[in-house]
Amino acid sequence: MEGTRLDADKVLFEREGVYIHNTDRLGEFRGRILLIENVRGKFIEWFPVYGGGVSSNFGTDNANSVQQLSPQEDSNHESYHNDSWTVIPPGGMVSFTKNEQISSGANNESLRLHTAANKSKKRSKGQQLLYTKPMRFSLGDILSVRVSERSLTYTHLKFSVRRDVQIPHFHFHEGGCMELVRNIEKMIPLVKCPADKRLYLAKTSEVSALTKSISELKIFEGNARDIASFNVGKFFDPYTATMGSLSKVKNYLLENVLAVNAQPQCRPMSEMADILNEEINQMEINQNLEPGYEIISCGHPLGSRPDIIRESQLTTEEWMTYRSESGQIERMPEIKRRIFKGGATHSLRRDLWKYLLGYYPTDITNQQRIEHRNNKEDDYFRMKHQWKSISQDQEKRFTLLRDMKSLVDKDVHRTDRTHKYYMGCTNTGILYDILMTYCMYNFDLGYVQGMSDLLSPILVVMENEVDAFWCFAGFMEKVKDNFELDQQGMKTQLAQLRTLLKFTDNKFFKYLEEKESGNLYFCFRWLLILYKRDFSFLDIMTLWEVLWSGLPGPNFHLFIALAILDTEKANMMDQDLAFSDILKHINELVLRIDLQDTLMKAEAIYTQLTECPSLPEQIREILYLPAEEPAGSQGSRAGTANKTDSSSETESEPQKASSTGQEHGEDSSIEVLTDTESESVL
Fold first, then answer.
1. pTM for the whole thing?
2. Checking CA distances to 393, which of 55, 91, 363, 465 falls within 20 to 30 Å?
């Protein structure tokens, strides 16, 4: 969107000598930054103050030469203001494109705005980036301001704003950086981060909502206000997220949405491993209707939900009927259907889980299985020896290892400590060894807080260090996107859940929106560790093996959340619960959710959707249904819970949906740009 500078603009602050650097560090663009006010609000503006806007060190060896205006040109900058102004739109990213030939005229320079769908497009070899067009963005969109450490002789400012808009750094070669920050503080409330004095947090509605949720639920020990401010700031600040901590020693925000509760059936807070997020960045769900989006609506009304009947558990005796004489597992899709419909008896889990989690291939014989396990055992102890053999002297110079060991040690002593299996030191030590060895197995991911929750039930079932490790490694393959640095997996799942809720129950969705809970942040813990802290130990084993079956589709864990919300919505709406009351209500559900009822309701909602004659494409993608066939074709609809999915022969991954879903869950629309369409935007 472009417009002209308004005559009614009132300049509140102005500073010369503010540069934007080309992203490849091949040039600098001298400009002026202003704070202005008009009838539409308060804005930050930047514009170049020299003709071509290009430092003369582009493509030359004269790195210190910078083209500048003459005093006459400099004093008469209003003529430049009459050129087109670029107002940064929601969902855009500023990028800088250098033409092959650079003229001294400003009209030859251009600014390109890339939508989120185009961010991944790679530049051709040799293509450089530059920017000379004026820009403007609203103070009301600022989430945080970071002041850099002084580099050589100047500092720079990094603004983080809403909706993934990327603002270039402003380099104050001639001073004035902190003067600008102080002037911004006069116009919008900024809070200095207690743990990072260079980071200023804007008290936006999103930050306030998260801060309030943390404070109300008493998640943190000590000074909740300071800790909440620190973590909430990093939740919204992408720059901080990328600079947060060493490699893969990560923390997670929204530790668990659990208050300290005196009721005996709720686990004590001290039992829980911390999930204090320092890595989640910009998990804001865009709620603005944009062009190019499809309205989420169904051409036909949803039918009534079918009645679902759960079946009996798969027993050891029945399991043996699926084994061949040589020990191979036959009819695995049928086994998975039985697991989805009924789960397994506890005595069978030690054997069954090894197949569900990919530790044992289904096509190996008894003798091959023995050899396979021996090889896996050798691999495990080889990796374990790698970190065990590091001397104390080496460890003094190995900060990453020290941090990992400290983090793991802290977590294992607070994970399921009331369970009889972990009351002594022996099994807690095994839990520690497995997690540390996993760091050697997966260097890229390492250890992340929350993993101990996922390992604990597996070790209880296996009662063997090697078997528990390889089953845990298989589990992590399914949920690893939850723990990645960019948190794209978690963002996508929340957006998909929001889309499903809006489509299936728009009335309840609007209620949550009115109560500032439409972002569904209170579901974060559910999705992160797959409801581990919300069900009893035996129930979570059943739920997990149902999800590991891969039926009726990889995103069935989202329907578990829908089912829980569906059960609780009447209570929440009848009481007209406010924001903080909703958080408390969700917290009080811990260990009180009926698993079988939830599974039946989740399957019913899924089946209800698949039986709808016409589903929006985005809903079909979330359900992993094939694209809708043209009218009159006789294609069969796949994916109902009572049918065997031919794709279930392969291991389905509940969290792999992050690669297919849309990043933003819109109020009434979902982006449907294809790869081809996104290329054409450029």
1. 0.61
2. 465
